[in-house]
Amino acid sequence: MKAELAVVPTIEFVAVLAAAFSGFAEARKKQMDPVGVFTVAFVTAFGGGTLRDLLLDRRPFFWVQHVEYVVLILVLTLAATPLLRLARRVVPETAFVLADSIGLGFFSIAGTSVSLIAGMPFIVAAIFGVVTGVCGGLLRDVILNEVPLVLRDGKPYALASFAGCWFYLLMVQAGAPDPLALWTSAALIVAVRMIAWRAQWTIK
Amino acid sequence: MKAELAVVPTIEFVAVLAAAFSGFAEARKKQMDPVGVFTVAFVTAFGGGTLRDLLLDRRPFFWVQHVEYVVLILVLTLAATPLLRLARRVVPETAFVLADSIGLGFFSIAGTSVSLIAGMPFIVAAIFGVVTGVCGGLLRDVILNEVPLVLRDGKPYALASFAGCWFYLLMVQAGAPDPLALWTSAALIVAVRMIAWRAQWTIK
Amino acid sequence: MKAELAVVPTIEFVAVLAAAFSGFAEARKKQMDPVGVFTVAFVTAFGGGTLRDLLLDRRPFFWVQHVEYVVLILVLTLAATPLLRLARRVVPETAFVLADSIGLGFFSIAGTSVSLIAGMPFIVAAIFGVVTGVCGGLLRDVILNEVPLVLRDGKPYALASFAGCWFYLLMVQAGAPDPLALWTSAALIVAVRMIAWRAQWTIK
């Protein structure tokens, strides 16, 4: 929890916003009504962390402690269509992918850190890190009635997260101070994901 | 919990039955076998409340305390096909929609009340009310491999629930006695849902 | 928990392996990448027990206590395609169905036993037994975007589990020693499932 709270709020804000926007985009593609748009954005942003906390039997959830994020998604839902159009025109695609990568990196390492504090063995902590990082998108796809992208597109998305989580665990094991381990590993995930995106790596 | 228990058993019975019947109808449409029919009816009736209790870390579940409802759904499953046909011929559609609305109203307010007692902030209590009211149907649709109706048909189903939950919270905040707040808000949800159905409101 | 631990590790190993293999086969059919193959095998093997433990509010999960199984599935994933091809050629179909039946029998009775110890009423313990036995496959199908096979193919899969769970409960109630009740009921499930498979029983 310490690790989660220690992260600069700006990064956290970017991560939540990136996840919510990916939810907006998918929900709009599927012709959802406003209730659907809000639900899908909410699940994409908080589903991974909520599932992790359910598995760890940990309360309160992140979004219960930070209801301002819930209000933000509620407000953004009302403006989702024009906002998305504007964002697509103004923001270059690289910025979108970068925001998404920051989300992946931040959520994954926060998830691993929380699991480690809860006494999980290393491999379980790494898996819970991946769950935190990617299960928001997985639940989004299940609700939208699609085979989850993360399980079939061959892009090293979950693998980047898994590698970063292990890197974090090894740094902590080696005695590195927690903030250093956290930032290095999250940065590693962002870097791997961005390079993989540029180079169009696939592992299929 | 008090609020939940205070509700007249007849209303509760109507709510559970309405949800189970909607599950029977959907499962039959999808050609499920008896195991599927039971599962889908069960999930539609108790899925929302069970998900809420999981999120609140609250035990025992409603249906574990009232196993008579589980037995009832088990017995009804065996007679689902003839029963559905009979019900469709004898009962006017308005009665079906009314029963369903009562389910929505009762489950939503009960969910909000329970969440408030569990110490949730207002907006989270309202969201958990909606979860209790609509997630049974949402889980039913996910199992039946469809994009959940509640997220895409533009009918103010979840919105009626959300509005009613806030009305309940404001009444409680204003010092209204709990039974009054509960009955007024549930009635409000039923009324909005019935009017929206008659007038064919959509919010898309 | 005692009952679970009392089961000979070989049986447990066969049950987990059978479930994982069914996950491998389905994931490959759907053209998943390695991340998908691992996730689907993992969910098929541990999804039912994890869902039961979530509902019972019980920790740690089986697979958190036995991380060697997680490592095993991770290793098998890397060799899934050639392994599956080899297994299909070398192992007769009867052996596959038998392994799957042993999984169903073992997981179902273990789930009932655990629920009984947690103080659940008989009917709930029987339902949690079925959840433990079949929900791994159900969650696998939901993730793979299919209507769950167990709910629609008319094969007495969940029913065999349900009958066996009640048999176990009645034996325990009648004062039978736990290991006897466990082995007899699990054997009953395996027998019913194998006979139903041979005779192509359907209940639709």
Biggest interface goes to:
A-B, 24 and 25 residues
The rough form of chain A would be described as: globular
Number of E-state strands of chain A: 0
Q: Helices and strands of chain A: which structural class? A: mainly alpha
Secondary-structure element sequence of chain A?
A: HHHHHHHHHH
The number of helical segments of chain A is 10
Low-pLDDT ranges of chain A = 1-5
The helix content of chain A, as a percent range, equals over 70%
What's the Cα radius of gyration of chain A? 16 Å
Q: Give the domain tally of chain A.
A: 1
Oligomer: homotrimer
Average pLDDT of chain A, rounded to a whole number, is: 90
Ends of chain A: how far apart? 36 Å
The main pleated sheet of chain A reads as: none
Q: In percent, how much strand structure appears in the residues of chain A?
A: under 5%
SSE diagram, text form:
Three copies of one chain form a homotrimer.
Chain A: H1 2-6, H2 9-29, H3 34-56, H4 62-65, H5 67-78, H6 80-90, H7 93-117, H8 122-143, H9 157-173, H10 178-199
Helix pairs in contact in A: 2-3, 2-7, 3-5, 3-8, 7-8, 7-9, 7-10, 8-9, 9-10
